Amino acid sequence: xxxxxxxxxxxxxxxxxxxxxxxGGTGYVAIMGLAGFAPETIKPTALALNxxxxxxACIRFYRxxxxxxxxxxxxGVLGLPFSLLGGALHLPSSTxxxxxxxxxxxxxxxxLRGSRAGVDQAGLHPPPFVLALLTGxxxxxxxxxxxxxxxxxxxxxxxxxxWADTRQTAAISATFNLINSAAALAGVWxxxxxxxxxxxxxxxxxxxxxIVGSWLGARHLRQRTLRLVLAALLLASAVxxxxxxx
Length: 246
Description:
Layout: H1 3-19, H2 25-35, H3 39-63, H4 69-88, H5 93-114, H6 129-146, H7 151-161, H8 166-191, H9 199-219, H10 223-244
């Protein structure tokens, strides 16, 4: 995939994901997988892009008064150290592709499910502390190993268990993405301090896409349509990575 085409693709991914309250980690991994990037490039690049879009999202949610310490910190207590550990672990390509392919498949199916699901406001309750710790730790390890922020897996869990409404779930997810991605990137850097030379340009593209996506998602585009588009991208990339591992 030519450099400009790749830069445009990740900017579009950032716009689509940010419009539904996510940072885009699985989308960046999917695009880089389709473009034929090696795992040692995919992982740190996806994490770095995820950090930028997560920062933009956290600023937006903070200004909207949706970020609260009590809602966010239980998921990060174990999520942060396990993401750091996961970032320091490097799977060989023969293992990385089927693992990430399976995660993309799960994310795509969950995105399809999320396009139809609603939230029962009357049944909401704060997450039990221990269960939130365990959930954050497991997702943190998986996200660190694979290079995704983890918010796309945390958000469905929160909504399914009735721990928060849709807007606060997006805020928690953005915070979780930021903490986990930063920790995982630190783990990657400690063991493999190499980043692509084109990363600053890609960051600029993703930053622009994230800002545009947040604006469009809030004002113009239907969430269900966006989720269906993202689901199609994730499922296509999952099939490619799983097929390449056979």
